Amino acid sequence: MSSDVQSAMELLQMNDYASLVMITLVTYDYVLSFSKEVDYVWNRTWTWVSMMFVLVRYIGLSWAIFNGLWGSIFLSGSVKMYASKFWLSIALITIS
Q: Is the N or the C terminus of the chain less surrounded, counting Cβ atoms within 10 Å?
């Protein structure tokens, strides 16, 4: 029994490390490219391309943060749990 608990704790720790790396890389990319985004998107007239850019960019950010904070890459579970996470993330994307 303690072996199972230790294995689960190791998987949780790996998941935390992977989440931290993902959130760090996404944040780093957004910080580096934000000034160009302001110049090329926000300070120009709005077109359908600029709207699509903003939509895709910030849905991607929301998706990465959601998966980084509540995703579980290395944890196993039932299909029902993963399906509910999938539909919850789709709902969050639709809202944002």
A: N
- The tokens for 60 are 């991607």
Q: How many CB atoms neighbour CB 64 within 10 A?
A: 19
**Which has the closest alpha carbon to 15: 92, 65, 69?**
69
Residue 76 structure tokens: 């196993």
Q: Report d(CA 46, CA 41) in Å as an integer.
A: 8
Q: Where are the alpha helices (DSSP H) in the chain?
A: 2-37, 48-70, 79-95
Tens-digit pLDDT profile for residues 2-34: 676 677 677 767 777 877 887 888 888 888 999
Residues in contact with 88: Cβ distance below 8 Å, sequence separation at least 6, in sequence order: none
> Rounded to two decimals, what is the model's pTM?
0.57
Give the alpha-carbon dihedral of 1, 18, 86, 5, to 10 degrees.
10
